[in-house]
From TrEMBL:
Pfam families: YfiO. One of its GO terms (cellular component) is cell outer membrane. It is a lipid-anchor. The gene is bamD. Part of the Bam complex. InterPro entries: BamD, BamD-like, TPR-like_helical_dom_sf. Keywords: Cell outer membrane, Lipoprotein, Membrane, Palmitate, Signal, Transmembrane, Transmembrane helix. This is Outer membrane protein assembly factor BamD. It comes from Litorimonas taeanensis. One of its GO terms (biological process) is protein insertion into membrane.
Length: 286
């Protein structure tokens, strides 16, 4: 994205005395916080943009942001302002100023919905949320936002490189959300709140079927039904687990558990069934 021209060389030399960075404070929120801004020195848009890009090449993202913002401030209706807006969003992302990056990318989309760089703006919003995903023990609001933003990239630009990467990130995001459901379900199971636990485990099987959590969720459902004394339901769930994951350690655990109640899951799994039986059973159970 380096929009370099020969103009940069001569203009930079001519303006060298004026390009010393002078930072002034801009008071926000009653003066408690300070937001850096360059002192206003009128310059051509291209020159300011190239100064910003020099900072990018030096990984000086904080100062690059100031120059990109200055392009917009001095030349808001120029083509350079449009480029600077998106670069400012990216520089904010690199400095982990996620809120600013998201807000700037959203502003770009609002002002330039048909621009060729708009797909990247959507993707940038998604990875801002994605990079804030924490462990499953914390609130997952950001993970939900990441999932929605990634899905939007895939839906709007399904054949793009951004969509291909978004699909990979969606897998981890959904596994993370499923992991949160599993953590809550296990807690309920330990507290003998089986009905609440069953709701969580069913949600994993129904909404996050392709994640790594599904096998355990099915086994935990078997455990929950057994602890409630509903062996018939435990048998059905166990047979679904065995049909889909016959070599799973979780299936082995369910098999051993139900053996103590006179249930042979292997026999259930290997019975001759009509076409579509297992799909219909899953739909009924979950």
């Amino acid at each position: 994205m380096a929009f370099k021209t020969q103009y940069k060389q001569t203009a930079r030399l001519a303006m060298i005395g004026l390009l010393t960075i002078m930072v002034s404070g801009c008071s926000v929120f009653g003066g408690k916080d300070k937001k850096e801004r360059l002192a206003y020195i009128e310059r051509p848009a291209e020159l300011i943009y190239n100064e910003a890009f020099d900072r990018v090449e030096k990984n000086d993202w904080s100062r690059a942001k100031l120059y990109f913002q200055e392009v917009e401030r001095q030349h808001p209706f120029s083509k350079w302002a449009r480029r600077a807006m998106l670069m400012n969003a990216y520089a904010s992302y690199r400095t982990t100023d996620y809120e600013e990056s998201i807000a700037t990318a959203q502003r770009f989309i609002s002002l330039h919905p048909g621009n060729e760089s708009t797909p990247y703006a959507y993707y940038l919003i998604a990875i801002n949320y994605y990079d804030q995903i924490y462990d499953v023990g914390r609130d997952q609001a950001t993970t939900v936002s990441a999932e929605a933003a990634l899905q939007q990239v895939v839906r709007r630009y399904p054949d793009s490189d951004y969509a291909r990467d978004a699909r990979l990130k969606l897998e981890l995001t959904q596994d993370h959300l499923a992991g949160k459901e599993m953590a809550i379900g296990r807690y309920y199971l330990r507290e003998n709140q089986q009905l609440a636990a069953i709701g969580r485990f069913k949600n994993v099987v129904k909404n996050y079927e392709t994640t790594s959590q599904t096998e355990e969720a099915l086994h935990r459902l078997v455990e929950s039904y057994v602890s409630l004394g509903i062996i018939s339901e435990a048998k059905l769930v166990g047979s679904v687990l065995g049909y889909n994951y016959p070599n799973s350690e979780w299936y082995a655990d369910s098999y051993e558990l139900l053996q103590g109640y006179g249930v042979d899951l292997e026999a259930e799994r290997k019975k001759n069934r009509r076409d579509g039986y297992w799909q219909r059973l899953k739909e009924r159970l979950f």
